[in-house]
Fold:
Amino acid sequence: MQKIIKITTSIFFIFILVVFYISLNNTSDYDTENLVGIKLEKIKLESFENKKYLTNENLKKNNFTLINFWASWCAPCRVEHPFLMELSQEKNLKILGVNFKDKRNNALNFLDNLGNPYHYLAKDDQGKQSIGFGIYGIPESILIDKDFIVIKKFVGPLNLEDLNEIKKITNLL
Amino acid sequence: MLSNIGNSLLFLNVIISLLIIYYSYNCLKISNNLIFKKIYNLSLFQSTSILICFFTLISAFLISDFSLINVYQNSHSLKPVFYKISGTWGNHEGSLLLWVIILTIFSFLFLISNNKHPKDYRLYTLIIQNLLILGFLFFILFNSNPFGIVNPVPKEGLGLNPILQDPALAIHPPLLYVGFVGSSIYFSAAMASMISNYNDKPFAKSIKSWVLISWVFQTLGILVGSIWAYYELGWGGFWFWDPVENASLLPWFAMTALLHSLLVLEKRKALYFWTIILCLLTFTLSVTGTFLVRSGILNSVHTFANDPTRGIYILIFLSIMISASVYLLFTKYKPEKSHVSANSKETFVLINNWFMMFYLLTVLLGTLYPIFLDALLKSKISVGPPFYNSVIIPVVVVFLVFMAVGPQAKWIKNRFINLKQLLAILVGAIIINFAIIYFFKSYSVISNLIIISSLFLIISSLFDFLKKSETNLSRILSHLSFGFLIFFIGLNHNFSIEKDFNLKLGETKIIDNYKFVLKDLELYNQSNYKTIIGKLQVRNVITNEERILKPEIRIYENPQTLTYEASILTNFFKDHYLTMSNIDRSEYYNIKFQEKPLMIWIWISTIALSFGGFLSLFRNAKNN
Structure:
C-alpha cells in the first residue's frame, strides 16, 4: 500500500512540474508568428506629420521595410532604440515607425532625445490599426520585403541577435 | 556607486550563507550541545548586511538614481516620497530582495529564540534555511538583479504603474511576504525535524510561534489586498477568485490547517507526519504561487513583465524543493501508533483539516486546471466565481457548524453534555435569520443556510466567552470573528443593490428609490496626474437620505494611464460606492452605483480574526 502511495505521489508531482514546464514554453499563446509568409496587401496608416495616409504605394520601392511599433511611454522601446538607429544606416532597408497610443509631444521629445531612425513615421492613436498587423503589445517589429511579404516578426524589443539577423537578410541582395 | 555597494553586499551574503552552512556542518560533528559563537555572529551579520543592501536600494529610489535600470523603470523624480520607497518592492527584482530579507531574518530569529531545543535540530534548520537563501540570492544575482545599471543614464524615470500608487498596496506585499515567505522557516524546521528525529511535542512547540506569525501576516496581507481591490479596481467587489489572489489563499488554507494540527501534536503527540506534510506544503504552495505569478503563466493585475527565464529558475528551485522533501518524507515515514477516538477533540481538529484540504484542493484545481488544459490540449477556459461559489459555499455551512461544536469537545474521549444548549442556539439562529430576511425582504435558500450557520457559530462562541472556565480567548475571538466575517459577507453579498446608467452634466435620473443628479464636473492638476472630479447627488426618495459622491477620472503622465477612482462613503450600516467613466466621443458618463450593507464590518471581522492569532502568539510566548 505504502509503495502505491509513494509512486502515485511522485507521479503526481512530476506531472505538475512537467505541465508547468510546458506552460512556460507556451508563451506563444497570443503570438502572431503565423503572419510570416503572408502578404500585407492593404497597408494603410495615418501619417504622423500630416493628414495623409501611408500605404503600400509609399513602400513599394524599398527592398526591405521594417515596420516598428513604438511609444514614448514604453520602456523596452528605449532599450531597442540604439539598434533601430544602427539599422537606419542599412542601405537596403527602410524603417517605418508606428507611434502607438502616444501623445504627439512626448513622441517628438522621445525622437529628439534619442534620435530618429524612421524613414517614415505613422501614428495609431487608438491602437486600432495595429491590430491588423497582429500587434498585441509593443515594441514589435515586422520585416517585409518589396512584395510586402512578412519575412520575420519580432515580438518584444530588438536585441543584438535580431539586429544581426536583419542585417544578414537585407544584405543578401 | 549604489550599484556597486548593492552588488557587493549581495556577494557578501552568498559568502556568509556558505560559511554558515560550512560551520554548522562542522558543528554537527561535535558531540556537545553547544553551537559555535561564530555561527550566531555570522547569522547576525547576514541579517544586518542584507538589510543594508535593501536600504541601499531604497536610497537609490529616494534620490532617483536612474543609473539603476530598476529605479529607471519603476520610479520618477516627481513621485511622492512614500511611493518612491514603496516602489522598491513594487517590482519583481526589488520584491525578491524582500524575499531574501525575510528568509534571512527569520533564520536568525529562529536560531536565537530556540536555544532550549537540541543543537542538531537547530543547525539542520539553519542549514536548510540557508540553502533556500542561497537559491534566492543566486536568482537575484544571475537573473533578477535590482542593481543592474543602464548606460547612458536616463534623465527621467518611467514611473510606477498608477494603480499601484496606493497606500494599501504599498504595505500589501511586505505583509503578505512575512506570511508566505515566513513559512520557509517551518519548512526548514520540518526537514530538520525529520533528519534529526526531533519530533512530537517539542517540535510542535518550536514552530508554533512561527506558524502564528506567518498566519497573522498572511491574513492581514490578504485583507489589505482585498481592501485595495475594493476601492481601486472600481468593481465594488473585494474578492474575484483571480488566480493570483488564489495563490495567496492556498498557503493560508495550509497554514490554518497546520495551526490546528499543531494543537493535536502538542497535546496528544499524534498527527506528527501530517503536521510535517502541512509544513512542507505551506511553503511549497508559496513558491508555487510565486512561480505562477512571476513566470507570466497567469495574467492579472499582479503580473510583472514576462520573462520565461525567471519561470525556469523558480521551477528548478521548486522541483528541487519538492523532490528533497518528498524523498525525505518517504524515507522517514513511520505509521503512527497513537489511537484517536472518533468522538474527541482530536477528531474535530482533523475535521477542520479535512475542510481546509477540501478548500485548498478546490481552489488549487480551479487555479491550475485552466493552465493544465492550455498546456496539454491547447484549449482555453476560465474558471470564475460561479465555480468557487457553488463548490465552496454549501460546504462552508457545514464547516461553520463544526467550528462551533468542535472546540467544546474534550481531548481523548468526549461526551456531548450540552446538546440542549446547542439546540437552543440553533433555534435562536433560525429566528434571527428570519428577522433579517423580513427586514431586507429578500430570500434565497443558500443565503439562509449561511446566515443560520454563521449565527450558530457566533452565538456558540459568545456562550463560550461567557463561561468562566474557558480561558482560550484567542480561539474564541478567532472563531467568533470568522463567524462574523462569513455572516457579514453573506448579508453583503445578498442584499447589495447595483445600478448602472449613463448621465450627462446637469441631468437627473430616477431609478427605483434613488434620484441621481450629476451636478458638476471639475478639472484639477495634481503633481503627477490630472483629474476630473464629478459631483453626484444621490437621494433615497423614500428615506430622504441625501449624499454627495465625488468619483474621479485620473490621467497619469508617467506612464500614461487612465484610472477611475471610486467615490465611497462609508458608515457602520452601509457603503455607497460610485464610479464614473467617460464614454468615447460623447458627453455622457457611465455611472455605476452600489449600495453595500455592512461593508466595513467585513474588514473589522478580518482584523479581529488576525488579532485572535496575535493573542495566541502572545499566550504562546508567555507559556514558553
Notes: The mean pLDDT of chain B is 88. Chain B touches chain A at residues 72-73, 154-155, 158, 291, 295-297, 306, 308, 311-312, 315, 318-319, 322-323, 326, 330, 333, 368, 371-372, 374-376, 558-560 (CB under 8 Å).
